[in-house]
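Renewal narrative, Specific Aim 1. Our central claim is that a sequence can be written position by position from structural information alone. The example that follows is taken directly from our test logs and has not been curated for this report. It begins with the structure tokens describing the chain, in the order in which they were read.
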């Protein structure tokens, strides 16, 4: 038996965006406000410092600052997963220890980035993170950005440990998701990565999702989840289709995160622009951002009705 309450992790988990001020420095006030809003939506938790959180573009100290602020603000209300992936194992270990100190509910990491690593090397990296704390660990599998393809055998080896409670799969194969679910055993959680196939991932075995577009429309993903749980598959599919039209539009801007931040700014959450090399939206994008925001808000109203 995994010695953790796995229920804490099942559901919609928002990949939290990075918050910066005008100068591009970490903005803890802004992240607190955003986290507080998310806490009112009914989502299960937040994934801090991952792809959407731009953790890879921040220093270790900056990453600690943000996590600590989020923990203080909503750590008692939401499940907080700290992404501690980095290029250097020692940085990840330091971040994991800090995550434990501030009371995060779990740590998670991609394989170490930049170098082309063997499975033994990635295993050693993850193991060092796992051994650094008593927190549960969630593997982050995102081969399209890390270049590392997690095999079923390494997954099974990792999942055999009590502390390894799940994997977030951002690869687009739902078959792989199902295979990981089957390989991990009954107490092993699988998180859907591609938001475009939340319903498909859920239907084939995912216990929840961690997503980068949830942050601009958590209500819509909660709606799919609600329909799915109620067995209303046709309605769930309709919501997924509507969401996918929005995601296609979000992906048409200079960067996904630039677009998400521009949308949140319209709603009164100014979390700055993404850090370079991620591109911000320009003034020329503003009209389309406003239109997209209106479309999302209309659907949110419909979902609530
Ligand atoms: C590749 C990537 O970043 N995937 C994210 C997480 O798994 C997703 O949440 C996407 O941001 C989302 O599905 C939009 O394509
Ligand atoms: C999508 C996600 O999980 C991330 O931004 O890390």
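The sequence written for that structure reads:
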């Amino acid at each position: 038996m995994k010695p953790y309450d796995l229920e804490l992790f099942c559901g919609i988990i928002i990949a939290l965006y990075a918050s910066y001020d005008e100068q591009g420095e970490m903005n803890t006030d802004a992240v607190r406000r955003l986290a507080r809003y998310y806490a009112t939506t009914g989502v299960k938790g937040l994934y801090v410092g991952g792809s959407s959180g731009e953790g890879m573009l921040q220093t270790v100290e900056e990453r600690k600052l943000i996590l600590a602020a989020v923990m203080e603000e909503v750590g008692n209300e939401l499940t907080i997963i700290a992404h501690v992936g980095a290029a250097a194992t020692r940085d990840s270990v330091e971040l994991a220890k800090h995550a434990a100190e501030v009371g995060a509910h779990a740590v998670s990491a991609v394989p170490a980035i930049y170098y082309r690593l063997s499975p033994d090397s990635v295993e050693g990296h993850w193991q060092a993170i796992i051994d650094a704390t008593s927190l549960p660990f969630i593997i982050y599998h995102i081969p399209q950005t890390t270049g590392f393809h997690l095999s079923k055998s390494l997954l099974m080896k990792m999942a055999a440990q009590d502390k390894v409670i799940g994997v977030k799969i951002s690869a687009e194969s739902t078959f792989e998701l199902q295979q990981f679910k089957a390989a991990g055993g009954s107490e092993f959680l699988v998180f859907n990565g591609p938001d475009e196939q939340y319903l498909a991932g859920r239907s084939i075995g995912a216990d929840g999702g961690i997503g980068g577009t949830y942050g601009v429309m958590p209500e819509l993903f909660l709606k799919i989840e609600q329909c799915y749980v109620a067995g209303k598959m046709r309605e769930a599919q309709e919501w997924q289709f509507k969401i996918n039209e929005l995601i296609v539009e979000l992906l048409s801007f200079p960067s996904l995160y630039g677009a998400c931040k521009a949308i949140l700014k319209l709603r009164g959450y100014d979390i700055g622009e993404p850090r370079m090399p991620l591109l911000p939206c320009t003034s020329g994008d503003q009209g389309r951002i406003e239109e997209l925001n209106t479309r999302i808000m209309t659907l949110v109203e419909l979902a609530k009705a």
